[in-house]
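Subject: design request, 542 residues
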């Protein structure tokens, strides 16, 4: 059965929900989400959302900090509008019911500080900002008749219409998506006037990540298969301080802990960050993660410590109640013990290329949030700028569509239903779990914080082989969410490797020991790839 809607929103994190709430004023919205609605990276955000609301702060300062963190690759026009439009969008979140922590000493909100920010400008809800934002947006969306949420529905592929010019065939309009209904084990066709990809990031491509299980780069892989342009996938942000404990699956110790005075220390208790950056433990993430990586490798250690004991129990319990209690569950008392931490894959700075209105290179297909590459983050995202980017772009996409909605007819092209013919039930689930582990291991060992040409080449060969195996399997067996995620994660891995191989320098989050310098003359530009570019590179053995 085909489902028709004005807007098809893939994903129910901050980007998808913020857009859906706005778009519902224009028409019907179907939100498709692969698990329950709240399950998203958004739900786990801790530090907060950066914006200029303090009299002492200024737009110029936030812009300068963002540009500096971005290692020369931010698009300055984008940085300017995201920063200056930010306060209005944050006020809108508050109107929609988000309760940020109030200031204890004055009117207004408590403002946190994080690495790379020269002012306190991070609004937060204790240390569970994402959960509070997600709660408010889900509640708000639930009151709107025009919004229908399809939980446990997994977007499989985008449906596009192509235009043929000479020998060139390009998708010129996105018509919808094939979506796997997990409970009924069947694929449904969703047709829409406008499709918004808001599927988030891809941290699960690495063994150790702060991201929840949903972060498998599905939207990115779908857009790539549909021939959209993708950029800057070499810039994977590793968060310096993920809790190091065998039972703590990907638990983040917020950068706000360093913002409140937490200091990174070696196992012997000595500090080390001052050797790497005058800002010490509060340097931007690329600098801190690379410094920790170097110290760990030098000493053969598995973790460093984060020491915030000096702030005392009362402060820690009030400012970081969630982190405080989670640490206690693992036997770590933040007020008495130093916290063992290690870097973990955290954020995808690259993504589906969009313009200043969130339009991808395929007509009627927009991308918003972590799945997109807007030009804001450049080679390294400034902390707490991603929630901000999502709400600013959700609004811009809405304004763009609002201006053309009334004159945009629905497309009536016939869309063939999903055809599972010839496929049978999977007989070897081991293929999925084995390849899943192999991809993540390969990416962590060869395409992590420190890269080299040799490591990238090895990773390319291995991932190519695994991808061929997955493709054969995909066409022969009935789909399952695990198979779809495996296929997508393999594509994301290929894209990270391809972009990393193209950037023969070190900048921001991309460090290659064969080119340990920044080369502005040749590489002060985005790394743009798509299916055609990738197959040309492969054909030429590059
Ligand atoms: P998400 O919130 O990840 O939402 C993606 C949605 O798409 C989910 O609902 C998912 O289920 C759905 N989805 C994915 N694939 C499919 C598919 N195939 N079919 C259907 N649905 C699909 N940023 C900040 O600015 N400040 C912070 O303090 C901060 N803290 C963070 C802490 C942690 C632990 C993590 C992991 C990230 C943090 N970030 C922070 C980053 C920020 O949370 C994310 O970048 C942001 O929330 C992404 O929002 P999104 O809407 O783009 O994607
Ligand atoms: C954190 O709280 O450290 C995460 C902030 C971010 O990723 O922006």
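Subject: RE: design request

Done. Sequence follows.
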């Amino acid at each position: 059965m085909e489902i028709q809607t004005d807007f098809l929103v893939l994903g129910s994190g901050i980007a998808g929900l913020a857009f859906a709430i706005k778009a519902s004023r224009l028409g019907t919205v179907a939100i498709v989400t692969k698990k329950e609605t709240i399950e998203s990276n958004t739900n786990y955000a801790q530090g907060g959302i950066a914006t200029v609301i303090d009299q002492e702060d200024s737009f110029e300062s936030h812009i300068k900090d963002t540009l500096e963190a971005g290692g020369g690759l931010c698009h300055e026009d984008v940085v300017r509008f995201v920063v200056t439009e930010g306060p209005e969008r944050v006020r809108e979140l508050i109107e929609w019911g988000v309760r940020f922590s109030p200031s204890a000493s004055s009117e207004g909100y408590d403002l946190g500080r994080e690495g790379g920010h020269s002012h306190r400008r991070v609004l937060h809800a204790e240390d569970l900002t994402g959960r509070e934002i997600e709660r408010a947006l889900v509640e708000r969306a639930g009151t709107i008749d025009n919004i229908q949420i399809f939980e446990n529905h997994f977007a499989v592929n985008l449906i596009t219409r192509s235009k043929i010019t000479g020998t060139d065939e390009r998708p010129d309009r996105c018509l919808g998506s094939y979506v796997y209904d997990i409970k009924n084990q069947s694929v449904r066709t969703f047709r829409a006037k406008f499709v918004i990809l808001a599927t988030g990031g891809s941290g699960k491509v690495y063994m150790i990540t702060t991201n929840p299980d949903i972060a498998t780069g599905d939207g990115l892989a779908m857009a790539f298969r549909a021939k959209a342009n993708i950029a800057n996938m070499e810039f994977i942000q590793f968060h310096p301080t993920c809790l190091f404990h065998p039972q703590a699956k990907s638990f983040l110790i917020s950068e706000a802990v360093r913002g409140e005075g937490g200091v990174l220390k070696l196992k012997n208790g000595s500090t080390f960050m001052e050797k790497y950056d005058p800002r010490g433990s509060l340097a931007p993430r690329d600098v801190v993660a690379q410094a920790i990586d170097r110290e760990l490798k030098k000493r053969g250690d598995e973790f460093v410590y984060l020491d915030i004991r000096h702030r005392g129990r009362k402060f820690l319990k009030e400012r970081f109640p969630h982190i405080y209690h989670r640490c206690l569950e693992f036997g770590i008392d933040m007020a008495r013990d130093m916290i063992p931490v290690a870097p973990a894959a955290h954020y995808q700075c690259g993504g589906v290329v969009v313009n200043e209105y969130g339009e991808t290179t395929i007509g009627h297909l927009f991308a918003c949030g972590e799945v997109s590459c807007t030009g804001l983050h450049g080679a390294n995202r400034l902390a707490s700028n991603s929630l901000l980017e999502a709400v600013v772009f959700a609004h811009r996409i809405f304004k763009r569509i609002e201006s053309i909605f009334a004159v945009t007819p629905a497309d009536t092209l016939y869309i063939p239903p999903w055809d599972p013919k010839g496929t049978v039930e999977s007989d070897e689930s081991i293929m999925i779990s084995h390849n899943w582990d192999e991809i993540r291991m390969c990416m962590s060992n060869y395409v992590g914080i420190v890269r080299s040409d040799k490591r990238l080449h090895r990773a390319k060969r291995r991932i190519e082989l695994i991808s061929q195996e997955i493709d054969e399997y995909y066409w022969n067996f009935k789909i399952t969410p695990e198979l779809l995620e495996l296929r997508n994660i393999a594509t994301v891995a290929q894209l990270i490797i391809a972009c990393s191989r193209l950037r023969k320098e070190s900048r921001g989050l991309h460090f290659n020991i064969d080119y340990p310098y920044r080369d502005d003359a040749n590489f002060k530009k985005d790394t743009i790839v798509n299916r055609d570019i990738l197959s040309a590179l492969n054909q030429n053995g590059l």
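The two ends are 44 Å apart (CA to CA).
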